[in-house]
Amino acid sequence: MSVLIKGGRVVTAADDYVADIFIEGERISLIGESLDVAADKVIDATGKYVLPGAVDPHTHLEMPWRGKTTVDDFYHGHVAAAFGGTTTHIDFCIQAKGQTFGEALATWHGKREGKALIDNGFHIIVTDLSENGGTLEELATLPEEHGVSSYKLFMSYNDSLRVSDEDLFRVMQVAAKTGACVMVHAENGDVIEVLMADAIAAGNTAPVYHALTRPPELEGEATNRAIQLAHVAGAPLYVVHVSCAESLAPIVIAREKGWDVWGETCTQYFFVDTSFLERLENFEAANYVYTPPPRPKHNQEILWNAVRTNALQAISTDHCAYTLEQKALGKDDFRQIPNGAVGMENRLQLIHHFGVREGRITLNRMVELLSTSPAKLFGMYPKKGTIVVGGDADIVVFDPEKHATISAKTHHSAADINIFEGTEVQGSPEIVLLRGNVIVEGGELHAKPGSGQFVHRARFRSELRPAALATA
Ligand code: URP
Ligand code: ZN
Ligand code: ZN
User: Fold this and answer.
1) Nearest alpha carbon to residue 102 among 141, 130, 129
2) Cα(81)–Cα(76) distance, rounded to whole angstroms?
3) What is the edge-to-edge ordering of all strands in the sheet holding 86-94?
């Protein structure tokens, strides 16, 4: 099968030019002006952007947690992602207590088998380094043997996922040796436990207390702690879902010193603020309960500035879909509201409209944040994350003029909630290709379940920072 994409505006993190792209099989084989080649399929991309498929480095598909499971499995999540122009994601594989890492990965591979429509990798979530759980020796084998080159640890959620600073540090020491990247969910879990108990004791059970018991300072404190520990261990650190000025500040300081610290924010932090947690009609506030919580509005422009200036390197979704029925379980106690929201389908549309169209970031920077940087940081570049001869033909033909209104009624997630409900955007994916195959066209899905591939990722790469700083 060959495909010729003609006359589109090819935009990568670095370039912006009109060209034709010729795809043979799964890869891009030729990029040039007015290519005179025969192809099985010709796509006229005149007036359209031709972008690398978006890469989402933070998702939770079919995730069992606290007795509930996220409603988007690898089929529904991938359909949503494909319509949104995301062709690769990295999902979090949770090591259950008492499991080895190999067992956890086998469970997560089972979830994607026969369902995957787009490509994905896994990060491993480390929860148990006791003698019944995983060992540091096994952890060290994951990059080479399983293509899993990132270790994720939680500094909060004391009831379930949180690890001690000692275990966090030991994992950082392993990462320093294996070349894996350490990812942290940074919040001070112990203090959050105290604040939550105080709130409940005082009869404060409403959703807004999810935010009030997780103040920004506790994200800032834990972020700084993780940075210092990673530096002592000599491990690269990636801070997930940075939501506020308090956690951004230590990242900026560390990066100014040349330390191996990276960070992402997520789409929702640009659009949803703390006031959404006061929408009490129909318990709507619960829809915005995710962690870290929506923050005071002034943080939104701070985060836009951070992604524009490379203080943060990626925008992910933290896609973690629950239904209204699941959210209602926390009607009488905010601690029982499952934490999470959708995002995989709308990230590109939202960042394009409010980031690029409204002049906050350039088109090149959008591609970098949504595709190139995640691919580089997580060992998939240049196979993924750019448009280059020899790279996978993961391509989005994006119509910058097409209007869309985001809604749970029309989205492809299995969730009946969309936190961006009613938002109007200009610009949407029109045709999406994964490894040379058209997976979305004309509003229709063309991919077959099971056609998505597992991506065996390389180790962490530090070429995103100047070599001169590498030994600082
Ligand atoms: O609320 C969220 N973010 N749910 C998923 C788990 C996490 O903390 O990323
Ligand atoms: Zn988290
Ligand atoms: Zn998450």
Assistant:
1) 141
2) 9
3) 54-59, 86-94, 119-125, 150-154, 181-185, 237-239, 261-266, 314-316
Residue 339 in contact with ligand 1 by CB distance below 6 A: yes
For the chain, the domains span: 53-385
Q: How far is the CA of 3 from the centre of ligand 1 (A)?
A: 39
* CATH code given to domain 53-385: 3.20.20.140
- Note if the pTM is more than 0.90: yes
Q: Omega before 296 cis (within 30°)?
A: no
3 state DSSP class of 302? helix
pLDDT digits (tens, 9 = 90+) for 393-424: 999 999 999 999 999 999 999 999 999 999 99
Ligand 1 proximity of 320 Cβ (cutoff 6 Å): yes
Residue linked to tokens 């829809």: 287
The string of pLDDT tens digits covering residues 67-82 is: 999 999 999 999 999 9
**H/E/C letters for each residue in 332-389?**
CCHHHCCCCECCCCCHHHHHHHHHHHCCCCCHHHHHHHHHHHHHHHCCCCCCCCCCCC
Residue at 227: amino acid letter:
I
